[in-house]
Structure formats: structure tokens, C-alpha cells
From TrEMBL:
Domain Gfo/Idh/MocA-like oxidoreductase N-terminal: 14-126
Protein name in the entry: 1,5-anhydro-D-fructose reductase
Class of the enzyme per the UniProt entry, highest EC level: oxidoreductase
InterPro entries tied to this protein: Gfo/Idh/MocA-like_OxRdtase_N, Gfo/Idh/MocA_Oxidoreductases, GFO_IDH_MocA-like_dom, NAD(P)-bd_dom_sf
Species classification: Bacteria, Bacillati, Actinomycetota, Actinomycetes, Micrococcales
Gene name linked to the record: afr_4
Chain segments annotated as transmembrane: none
Key word NAD present: yes
Length: 344
């Protein structure tokens, strides 16, 4: 069966204020500019560098930024997300915030409440839903290609990024919250909400600087099982992702290692299926551009995007349940989780 990924129409012009100027900002800024947005950006140090490299206007303070823009795009280290979401909401600006929506589920709930009270929209950046191999697979599953989903398997291997805050599990949340959250979210997109989580984690090397790998098993409310493995132990900058989705009537497989890479300006490199089998229709457009275009259209009064703030909260709750399971050695129900705090 061939599945076609629909062409995404361009977003209308928008005044966007980006907060943060690091790795992922280098993927967002060109995407916003390609979409025709007018971009101002602010960070504590790096905004000038980003402007010189890609364009947009570097501004000196958060207050100045909020005065200039219609919407805010938060691309700062995870612990700072909540404060910037609250500031943007207080200024009456719609908010797009990179994953994870916040460092803890309690913070994510506060963020959702702040935006609801201010009457502004809030969306988290789960860009994997916009990678063509993932989008096409989701559409195939939703169309019944494999029948009822029974077992999903995901792997995501990469190296831990350089900035120090990723190394501190108090800041990044560790490999489960920071990296594997992509697959935790994708698992729910296909198989619905999660009831119970069991997880194991391994740390090779000294102290908090050790390289962490994890395996998380999810039991969905509908009975399906998902298992996700992730590691920061793969050398180099390329990610490799695989998945296999087995149902009552068939199985879908993807391995980014068998397909040609998609290189995104700004130094972030993912790998993307192209040209064969189930997933022939690679748009050639940055998934960040597809993502931000859909979000921009929602901000301008169009349809809601495919991922909600509540989806962002759900993914954090699953990650927190996994971290609790690592600590206790026991399965953990997602409903029992409320801000467990730091990573194991
Ligand atoms: N969806 C995806 O595929 C990805 C998502 N992410 C997520 O994006 C977020 C940012 O990650 P990444 O870009 O890799 O991180 P980086 O460390 O590369 O960049 C962070 C940027 O934020 C700035 N910054 C740091 N603290 C503050 C602050 N308090 N206020 C304003 N600016 C600040 C830093 O700049 P300065 O030096 O100027 O202070 C830097 O420009 C994280 O939440 C991460 O999980 C990251 C990578 C990929
Ligand atoms: O997809 C991604 C690439 O890896 C990074 C480091 O784990 C993540 O922060 C990011 O979400």
C-alpha cells in the first residue's frame, strides 16, 4: 500500500519572536524565514551570531522582543521553558515551545493554565510527527493498514549534544525526557493513551557524565504494548531511528539507516526515509518548516495542529513514570505521577 503525505500549504506572514539561539534555533530560524515570517530573536549571548548566519533581527531584551512580535517560539534549555511561556502568555502572545513542553509535568500544567487564562494558544514542538516517514506511517496505521495495533518497537540512537546543560539530568531530564520523548509521543499518536510504564536505564561511565541508555515499555489503555530504546552512546552527529508497528493484519517497518539522509541547515542532522516501499513521498521540505507552517496557520485562526499542549503534557507524564520505574524497579501507572522531579 502506498501512502501519500499531503502537500502542506505555506503559512501566512507572522511576526515571530524566538527566544534562544542555539542548536535547534538554527533549524527553526531558516524555517520561519522560508515561511515568510518576520523574525526577531533574543538570547543571553548568541542572538547576534544567529542573525549573522541566517537573518532576522537580534534584540537586546525579552521586553523589547515581546513588544515587537505576534507569537513566541521558545528554543531555550528545558528548565527555562515555563518562565518564558508564562512571560509570553502575560504579554498576550501565542506560544510555540520546543519539547519537552516543560521540565516537569507540574510545570507543564502551569504552562497550560497560564496560556488558558491569558486566552493564548500553546503548542509543543514534537517535530517527529512531521518527519515524512513518521507522518506516513501514522496515516497508514490510522487508515487500518495493520489492523488493530498490537506491538510497537522504537529505537533512537544518537550522541549527547555538547552544551553542558544536557549532561545534567536535573536540567535536561536525561535521555528519556530529552530524547526518547519523541518516541513516547509517537507511540501515543498511533496507539492512544498509556496506562502503565516499566523502564530500565543503564549508565556507562562516571557520575552524571556517564552516557545513558534506556528501555521503556508502555502498556496502552487499549491493550497495545510499545517498547522504546534510546541511547546517547552513538558517536557522531547523525541519529539513527527505527520502528516496527505490528497489528492484527500486518506490520510496518522503518530504518533510517537504510534510507538517504535529510540534512537540516544549522548543523542538526536527522535521517529520513526516501523513495521505497510504503513511504515513497518524501517532501524534501524540512520537517521543522512543515511543523512551524502548521503551527503558524493555527495561530492565524486556522485548524489546530496535530499536536496539542495536552499531548506534550502526556509525553512528560510517561517520561516521569519511566524515571520513577527506573528508581523503584516496579511498573508505574501514569495516573499516579505528579512531578517526580529529577532524572535517575
Ligand atoms: N525537536 C528537536 O528535534 C530538538 C529539540 N530540542 C529542544 O530545544 C531546546 C533547546 O535545545 P538546544 O537548542 O539544543 O540547546 P542549546 O544549548 O544549543 O541552545 C540554547 C540556547 O538558549 C540560550 N539560552 C540559554 N539559557 C537561556 C535563558 N535563560 N534565556 C534565554 N536564552 C537562553 C543559549 O544562548 P546564549 O548562549 O545566548 O545564552 C542558546 O542560544 C531544548 O528544550 C531541547 O530539548 C533540541 C534539539 C532538537
Ligand atoms: O531530537 C533531538 C536530538 O537529540 C537531542 C539530544 O538528545 C534532543 O534534545 C532532540 O530533541
Amino acid at each position: 500500500m502506498l501512502v501519500t503525505v499531503p502537500v502542506h500549504p505555506p503559512a501566512p506572514p507572522l511576526r515571530v519572536g524566538m527566544i534562544g539561539a542555539g542548536g535547534i534555533a538554527g533549524a527553526h530560524l531558516p524555517a520561519w524565514l522560508n515561511l515568510g515570517a518576520a523574525v526577531s530573536h533574543f538570547s543571553t549571548v548568541g542572538a547576534e551570531v544567529l542573525a549573522a548566519r541566517h537573518g532576522g533581527v537580534a534584540v537586546g531584551s525579552l521586553e523589547e522582543l515581546l513588544d515587537l512580535v505576534d507569537v513566541v517560539d521558545i528554543v531555550t534549555p528545558t528548565p527555562s521553558h515555563l518562565g518564558y511561556i508564562e512571560a509570553a502568555a502575560a504579554a498576550g502572545k501565542h506560544v510555540f515551545c520546543e519539547k519537552p513542553l516543560a521540565r516537569t509535568s507540574a510545570d507543564a500544567r502551569r504552562a497550560i493554565e497560564a496560556c488558558r487564562a491569558a486566552g493564548v494558544q500553546l503548542y509543543p514542538g514534537h517535530v517527529v510527527r512531521y518527519f515524512s516517514e513518521y507522518e506516513a506511517t501514522h496515516r497508514a496505521v490510522a487508515a487500518g493498514t495493520v489492523g488493530a495495533v498490537a506491538v510497537q518497537r522504537f529505537t533512537r540512537t544518537g550522541s549527547r549534544p555538547g552544551p553542558d546543560w544536557f549532561h545534567d539530568p536535573e536540567s535536561s531530564g536525561g535521555v528519556v525526557l530529552d530524547q526518547m520523548i519523541h518516541d513516547l509521543d509517537f507511540a501515543c499518536w498511533n496507539a492512544g493513551p498509556v496506562d502503565t510504564v516499566f523502564a530500565r536505564q543503564a549508565r556507562i561511565g562516571p557520575g552524571t557524565d556517564g552516557v545513558v541508555s534506556a528501555h521503556v515499555v508502555l502498556q496502552h489503555v487499549n491493550g497495545a504494548i510499545s517498547h522504546a530504546a534510546g541511547t546517547w552512546a552513538q558517536p557522531g552527529t547523525a541519529f539513527r531511528t527505527t520502528f516496527e508497528i505490528a497489528g492484527s493484519d500486518g506490520i510496518l517497518r522503518h530504518d533510517s539507516g537504510e534510507h538517504k539522509p535529510l540534512v537540516i541547515d544549522g548543523g542538526i542532522r536527522h535521517e529520513c526515509a526516501a523513495g521505497t516501499g510504503l513511504l515513497p513521498d518524501v517532501t524534501g521540505i524540512s520537517p521543522f518548516e512543515l511543523e512551524l507552517g502548521e503551527i503558524a496557520r493555527a495561530f492565524m485562526g486556522g485548524d489546530p495542529p496535530r499536536v496539542s499542549a495536552e499531548d506534550g503534557l502526556a509525553a512528560i507524564l510517561i517520561a516521569e513514570a519511566a524515571i520513577t520505574s527506573v528508581r523503584t524497579g516496579q511498573p508505574v501507572t501514569v495516573a499516579s505521577i505528579e512531578n517526580v522531579g529529577v532524572a535517575a
